[in-house]
Amino acid sequence: MARKTLGGSSTFSHSSYTYLIDRSGSLRALMPYGQSSDDYVHDVKILLKP
């Protein structure tokens, strides 16, 4: 997160992700805001392979 001060007011910028976490609690993937549903389907299919 970045904080900027401009003329006495503050603005914040940050990123937004969807976290794909497996059953053991390990982070498997980060999907940035704006990813298409096709991208989600592609990655989840990979993660669900045995």
Task: Give a verbal description of the structure.
With 50 residues, this protein is of the alpha+beta class. It has one domain (2-48). Helix content is 24%, strand content 42%. The chain is built from one helix and four strands. It has one helix at 37-48; strands at 2-6, 9-13, 17-21, 27-32. A two-stranded antiparallel sheet has the order 1-2. The longest helix has 12 residues, at 37-48. The radius of gyration is 16 Å and the shape is elongated. The protein starts with a strand and ends with a helix.
Give the topology.
Layout lengths: L1 E5 L2 E5 L3 E5 L5 E6 L4 H12 L2
In round numbers, the mean pLDDT is: 84
* Side-by-side strand order of the widest sheet: 1-2
β-strand percent reads 35-45%
- Alpha-carbon distance between the two ends: 36 Å
Instruction: State the helix count.
Output: 1
Number of domains: 1
Task: Determine the structural class based on helices, strands and strand pairing.
Answer: alpha+beta
Shape: elongated
Main β sheet profile: 2 strands, antiparallel
Order of helices and strands: EEEEH
* SS elements, strand count: 4
Radius of gyration over C-alpha positions, nearest whole angstrom: 16 Å
Low-confidence stretches: none
Summarize the amount of helix as a percent range.
Answer: 10-25%
